Amino acid sequence: MTRHTQIGKTGLFVNPIGLGTNAVGGHNLYPNLNEETGKELVQAAIHHGVNFIDTAFIYGPGRSEEIVGEVIKETGKRSDIILATKGAHKCVGQDVVFDNSPAFLKQTVEESLKRLQTDYIDLFYIHFPDNDTPKDEAVGALKQLKDEGKIRAIGVSNFSIDQLIEANKDGYVDVYQGEYNLLQRSAEKVLLPYTVEQNISFIPYFPLAAGILAGKYNKDRVFNDLRSKMPHLQGEEFVQNLDKVEKLRKLANEKQTDVAHVVLAWYVTRDSIDVVIPGAKRAEQVVSNLRTLDVHLTADEIQEIDRIFQ
Ligand code: NAP
Predict the structure, then answer these.
(1) b vs e for 1-25, b when ≥16 Cβ sit within 10 Å of the residue's Cβ?
(2) What is the pLDDT averaged over residues 41-54?
(3) How far apart are CA 86 and CA 93, in angstroms?
(4) What spacing in Å lies between the alpha carbon of 212 and ligand 1's midpoint?
(5) Which residues belong to the active site?
(6) Ligand 1 atom 48: the closest Cα is on which residue?
(7) Ligand 1 within 6 A of 221 CB?
(8) What is the pLDDT of residue 2?
(9) Of the candidates 200, 295, 275, 300, which has an alpha carbon nearest to the alpha carbon of residue 50?
(10) Using CA positions, which residue lies closest to atom 14 of ligand 1?
């Protein structure tokens, strides 16, 4: 029996272990992705009780949404799934620019609906801020789409605190998605406290810090995808981060579980974090991450993890 939790004030109930799908059809992010493997991992997720799936137009672009939509359709379980997607990237010739204008947001939602083969999106995010659109106007456009039943909840992602405050002027923002993990904790300064105060659910992306917090990399690991440009996976910083992971492994071993599961369990002890969306490359990883639901951290363990990664 899967435990379900409400995402903030949305009325959407989810298994707190969701699935991030930027490696499902995300050919522009990870070279040599196999689409069958991507399909299988989404199928496995749904089969094993994951009901919150996170995608975005730009993963592919478009291909992740198409694969996720196809799998959900095949399962016949659309009404059991809480489907989140994002838009703001506009292709102009060879360039991709951010556009938060009401007209573009409405257009991109329509296009996502088609790729996802559905007539509603449970949670739609503005993926990145643009430079021009007042953020309350952008969110106002999403509120109209919500009133029309095309989306059920409103999210923003990668907004600064000032942009988030502006976006939430009328109290319409339900979810904020931002980078947050045990190795990148800057959201703790102002973003997380603001979301707690405003009853906005905070969904951390890169919860496994792009894989290192799953505890299986060593210093010889070479990355040939978007991770090759991430400072926390290079040089001395990578070595220091691996040391922290080793300290955490001791705790995970004592609890007879994996590093990834302790990490994911820690996030959902934070105020305003209701659900996590670890990504995966293979079905086994998805199934493994569900074991997080069996991990119970004591107050002392929560503090110890905090201390290791301070
Ligand atoms: P992540 O969740 O931090 O790391 C995922 C990677 O960790 C997997 O691809 C896999 O990589 C490894 N992994 C996962 N579970 C594992 C397990 N049980 N055992 C061993 N390794 C495991 O990074 P992410 O997928 O990039 O981020 C999560 C989701 O957040 C994305 O899928 C996407 O939906 C969302 N996101 C949003 C934004 C935004 O701008 N809003 C930005 C980034 C991501 P390997 O097998 O290659 O090691």
Answers:
(1) eeeeeebbebebebbbbbbbbbbbb
(2) 98
(3) 21
(4) 10
(5) 59
(6) 211
(7) no
(8) 61
(9) 275
(10) 280
Cα–Cα distance, 94 to 286 (Å, whole number): 35
Of all helices (H) and strands (E), which one includes residue 5?
strand 5-6
Cβ–ligand 1 contact at 22 (below 6 Å) = yes
pLDDT above 80 (res 31): yes
For atom 31 of ligand 1, the residue with the nearest CA is 20
SS (H, E, C) 84-153: EEEECEEEECCEEEECCCHHHHHHHHHHHHHHHCCCCECEEEECCCCCCCCHHHHHHHHHHHHHCCCECC
Q: Is the CB of 207 under 6 A from ligand 1?
A: yes
Say how many Å lie between the CA of residue 226 and the centre of ligand 1: 12
Q: Over the Cα atoms of the chain, what is R_g?
A: 19
* pLDDT level of residue 18 (50, 70, 90 thresholds): very high
- Ligand 1 centroid–CA 164 distance in Å is 24
For the chain, the average pLDDT equals 97
User: How would CATH label the architecture of 5-214+258-298?
Assistant: Alpha-Beta Barrel (3.20)
What are the tens digits of pLDDT across the range 138-149? 999 999 999 999
User: Tens digits of per-residue pLDDT, 260-308?
Assistant: 999 999 999 999 999 999 999 999 999 999 999 999 999 999 999 999 9
pTM as predicted: 0.97
Q: How far is the CA of 247 from the centre of ligand 1 (A)?
A: 21
Probe ligand 1: pick from 19, 22, 68, 182, max atoms within 8 Å of CB? 22
Q: Is 20 in the pocket of ligand 1 (CB under 6 A)?
A: yes
- 82 close to 12: Cβ distance less than 8 angstroms: yes
3-state SS, residue 296: coil
**Mean pLDDT of the 23-46 span:** 96
